[in-house]
Amino acid sequence: MSLVPLVLVVLAALIHATWNLLAKRAASGGPAFVFAYNVVACVAYLPWVIWLLATREQVWNWPIVFCLLVSAVIHLGYTLCLQRGYQVADLSVVYPIARGTGPLFSSVGAFLLLQEPPTWLGVLGLVAVVAGIGCISTQGNLAAFHQPKGQEGVRWGLGTGSLIAAYTVVDGYGVKVLGIHPVLLDWSSNFLRFFMMAPLVLKNVAYARERMKGHWWLAVGVGLFSPLSYILVLTAVDMGAPLSLVAPAREMSMMIGAIFGMLILREPVNAWRVAGCATIIAGVVLLGSA
Asked: Which of 129, 131, 132, 138 has the alpha carbon at shortest distance from 108?
């Protein structure tokens, strides 16, 4: 990977961890918060989209329309799943598990569905990611697996990770194969999600407004940062950076998220969680090298 795409991916990792910190602070907002920052994203990035449509030729066909629809549905599931995870568990649990299992599920899918032959590096990477998740979720206490609510963060993190793997493949295909501009892809996905969520939120505006008390500025922050972090990643892919290298490189955001949880949110981040984050990062790097 050349220097410019690498810088874009590193910057994206920092921005990604930052908007997840903001989302965690507004965990109680639930779907109303997701809808609010989605509206912010649509409005904030509309001038950029208009400029692209006016100055750049974009071919529209049914495969592109289908790709945008699928991307919107997957991203909607991802945002709702992530926000629910932040309601029931710490940022330093949900975030690294969600980010780490994205490449994990992608690799398992390649092994099982595409029948790609597994390599030693790939197998070691899978084992490392699973071990890291175990360190984070149990913190060295295996009895945690028997606690009814002790694994909620793990479950929601795993669910989020599976959706990350899905949208990574779909959006990578849209940018590299179908030629959709990264900004157009991300904005179109946000715009479609607005219509998907509007009936749910607007049917009880008073309840949504109540959930958003004290969270409006956080929604502005997430609405600005979330698209930007993903646009930077898609731009790196569009510049020719291999998806197999971009995905592992951006996972450095896991350690940033754990540090945010420890220093800013005062979460109990002990040696087990730090070791788990480091193990997941090592596993993701191995998966990217396989």
From this structure: 129
Range of the domain at 110: 3-289
Question: In whole angstroms, what is the distance from residue 103 CA to residue 107 CA?
Answer: 6
Domain count, the chain: 1
Residue 148 neighbours by CB distance under 10 Å: 6
Residue 149 predicted with pLDDT over 60: no
Q: CA 257, CA 14: separation in Å to the nearest integer? A: 9
- Asked if the model's pLDDT at residue 147 lies above 90, the reply is no
What mean pLDDT do residues 185-207 have?
92
pLDDT in the model for residue 88: 83
Distance in angstroms (rounded) separating the CA atoms of residues 222 and 2: 29
Task: Measure Cα distances from 164 to 49, 102, 169 in Å.
Answer: 24, 5, 9
- Per-residue pLDDT of 166-185, as tens digits, reads 887 888 888 888 888 889 99
Cβ atoms of residues 123 and 285 within 8 Å:
no
What is the C-alpha R_g of the chain? 19
Q: What is the DSSP letter of 147?
A: S
Q: How many CA atoms lie within 13 A of 167 on its CB side?
A: 23
- Cα separation, 91 vs 117, in Å, equals 35
